[in-house]
Amino acid sequence: MADVQTLKPNPKPRIALAIVSLVLGIVSVLFCIGLLTGIPAIITGHVARRKARTNPTGYRGARLGMAGLILGYFSLLQTILLALALAPGFEKARLQFESLQCANNLRQIGMAVRIYATVNEGVFPRTASQFGPHMGFSTFLICPADAGYRNRKIDSKDFSKTSYIFTLDGASEATPTTVIVRCPFHDLTLTADGAVHRPDDSPQP
Question: Least buried of 77, 112, 162, 200, by fewest C-beta within 10 Å?
């Protein structure tokens, strides 16, 4: 009796990897998230195409993988162009924030100077070390735009280091418009009355 051979059907070619690449590519373009889904789309697209080329009976979807590849690369280019377009806006916002921080520092200095004058019968301080304890922290003496001090660890009670230029000599309650502090980075000034001014001499709100 002849042996009966059982014929096994050929397995259905796999296409899931190519579909994953296509879906990731579409998502990356629609939502402009090239770094999150565009790169996986490129990787899975390359793998799907290689498997379809080397084992065509077991894998297919080379065209779908190519589509995912193209969309992945396009989303990366899209993300880069968007970042380049937004970069100036972020830089402008950062500079404005630093200017606001600097103005706040000057206000804190102005308050400390006036507190010192009140305690000392109207006599203004001559150095930051004199009014510093009334300010609390030395960080108010460092402009956020001053790279020389920004990344250095400074003792919060060390009032000898500052980014600002002080002209306290001759200042008093009788000279409220006298400039006593100037920021060399933002050109903001602080007058003896505690007001902060922009370069156009208009008081900051």
Answer: 200
